[in-house]
Design brief:
Blueprint: E1 3-7, E2 10-13, E3 18-25, E4 34-39, E5 45-51, E6 58-60, E7 68-73, E8 78-83, E9 92-98, E10 119-124
Parallel strand pairs: 2-10
Antiparallel strand pairs: 1-3, 3-8, 4-5, 4-9, 5-6, 7-8, 9-10
């Protein structure tokens, strides 16, 4: 069965940086649009960033534009999210999954794999 494993989260002061990784096993996601999502306590899971199959096109939520960078290494079957200038409002559990397309920002959990466990990012002031 295909699994998605997120890692790289942690505790950081406001203004700090982290790099998250999303690794897939059992099947390659090199042909799919991929995205990062986050869920803060008591809130719904929201779109953060997306990237097409080749990495030539990206899409970002307004709240992270200019601070976060999404990238992928298809040879390693790994997706990344570089987060700079972190703010307390970035605190959330971060997840990855397949996107239907960049414009819709809609995840399709279960098409490639179910949601993983996510990785916790905590930003203090």
């Amino acid at each position: 069965q295909v699994q998605l494993v997120e890692s790289g989260g942690g505790f950081v002061q406001a203004g700090g940086s982290l790099r998250l990784s999303c690794a897939a096993s059992g099947r390659t996601f090199s042909n799919y649009v991929m995205g990062w999502f986050r869920q803060a306590p008591g809130k719904e899971r929201d779109f953060v960033a997306g990237i097409n199959w080749s990495g030539s096109s990206t899409n970002y939520a307004d709240s992270v534009k200019g601070r976060f960078t999404i990238s992928r290494d298809n040879a390693k079957n790994t997706l990344y999210l570089r987060m700079n200038s972190l703010k307390p409002e970035d605190t959330a559990v971060y997840y990855c999954n397949v996107l239907s397309d960049l414009a819709s920002r809609r995840p399709v959990p279960g098409f490639f794999a179910s949601w993983g466990q996510g990785t916790q990012v905590t930003v203090s002031s």
